[in-house]
Q: What sequence folds into this?
């Protein structure tokens, strides 16, 4: 049998999308990339913020925890809204929310106001991913869904890289006490994406044709067979995100404080990590389509745990090895997320496809958010590197959660 050209070429997944699906893909890609940018300005500016307000490690960790806890609430709200008012309209609301409150963080006059503003930023931050991923997943055929949604996921690395470039330039030319504020204010730029979303991006037919049945209720995901799915998918998301946000929140501080790197040196180390992350997102999507969703999750969870331990526990004399370990660490800790968008969309029927992924992914964020705060508290006793090693336990939870979930590769969306 002759294999269609769209299955042979690496770009076949893009050509298989309908014109409106391609517009949705671009909108979701930009939305998640800019979402990433607005997330990363906090970890990158954390040391300067702590110096400005005289914060302890516990207080700085709480900034990230508040962001992630409120992102869970925002994700649940966005999931329900996506089922009620549509994917695209919800996506616009989330983008404006995270952009406006990120910029306002740069104007905060004390720690308390920054904590509140960052928490409100989390409402938009949490809702964007699930909404954009579902929008694109519903336009995509089953055979391509893993890689298509993983390309959306790869925009996280693009936004991360853009934030590191902005951080490096701004902190090089501006005093740190002012530089972190400027970095936050640049987070207002994503609001411009709304103009693109309003021009020609539409919800997929698989949703609009059955929209009357999509009442956007959380009750549906806690009934019947969906209850088991919701519980184990939430645990899976908790494990993956607990490990990742341990890395994301504390790595810049770990490099500057424990490894003694300058701003330029930190940027160099992060370049290896970000390059690996970008390639990990792309490769992970192909792997989930080839070997299945669950085997890919297991593989990357184990590798991420091992690499996190190596990265944080190698002695100062192995600084060169640590730099190069950033590439596989970024690769594996990011590749594990490549399958999330496709997997969660496939686990839920159309009427619960917004609420299900919106709740489970962001429940994982909420519980996983306590890992950065816990690391901040443990850092006083074990040092930042020693405390970060506890993040490996989160990946063990992800492996256990997979035993309660089905394999969904090649499942068409209803």
A:
């Amino acid at each position: 049998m002759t294999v269609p050209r769209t299955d042979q070429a690496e770009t076949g997944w893009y050509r298989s999308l309908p014109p409106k699906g391609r517009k949705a893909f671009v909108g979701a890609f930009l939305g998640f990339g800019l979402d990433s940018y607005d997330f990363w300005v906090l970890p990158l500016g954390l040391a300067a913020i702590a110096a400005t307000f005289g914060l302890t490690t516990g207080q700085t960790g709480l900034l990230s925890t508040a962001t992630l806890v409120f992102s869970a609430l925002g994700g649940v709200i966005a999931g329900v809204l996506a089922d009620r008012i549509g994917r695209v309209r919800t996506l616009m609301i989330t983008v404006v929310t995270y952009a406006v409150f990120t910029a306002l963080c740069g104007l905060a006059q004390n720690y308390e106001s920054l904590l509140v503003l960052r928490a409100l930023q989390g409402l938009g931050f949490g809702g964007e991913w699930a909404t954009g991923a579902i929008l694109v997943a519903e336009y995509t055929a089953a055979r391509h869904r893993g890689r298509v949604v993983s390309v959306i996921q790869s925009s996280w690395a693009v936004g991360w890289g853009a934030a590191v470039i902005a951080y490096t330039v701004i902190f090089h030319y501006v005093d740190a006490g002012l530089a972190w504020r400027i970095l936050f204010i640049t987070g207002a730029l994503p609001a411009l994406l709304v103009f693109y979303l309003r021009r020609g991006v539409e919800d997929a037919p698989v949703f609009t044709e059955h929209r009357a049945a999509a009442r956007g209720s959380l009750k549906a995901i806690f009934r019947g067979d969906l209850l088991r799915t919701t519980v184990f998918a939430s645990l899976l998301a908790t494990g993956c995100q607990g490990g990742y946000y341990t890395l994301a929140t504390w790595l810049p501080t770990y490099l500057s404080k424990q490894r003694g790197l300058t701003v330029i040196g930190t940027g160099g180390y992060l370049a290896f990590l970000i390059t690996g992350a970008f390639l990990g997102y792309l490769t992970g999507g192909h792997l989930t389509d080839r070997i299945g969703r669950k085997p890919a999750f297991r593989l990357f969870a184990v590798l991420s745990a091992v690499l996190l331990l190596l990265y944080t526990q190698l002695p100062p004399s192995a600084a060169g090895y640590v730099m190069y370990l950033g590439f596989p660490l970024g690769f594996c800790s990011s590749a594990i997320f490549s399958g999330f968008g496709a997997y969660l969309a496939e686990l839920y029927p159309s009427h619960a496809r917004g609420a299900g992924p919106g709740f489970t992914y962001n429940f994982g964020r909420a519980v996983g958010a306590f890992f950065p705060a816990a690391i901040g508290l443990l850092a006083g006793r074990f040092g930042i590197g020693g405390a970060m090693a506890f993040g490996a336990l989160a990946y063990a939870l992800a492996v256990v959660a997979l035993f309660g979930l089905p394999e969904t590769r090649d499942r068409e969306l209803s």
Observations:
- The chain has a mean pLDDT of 82.
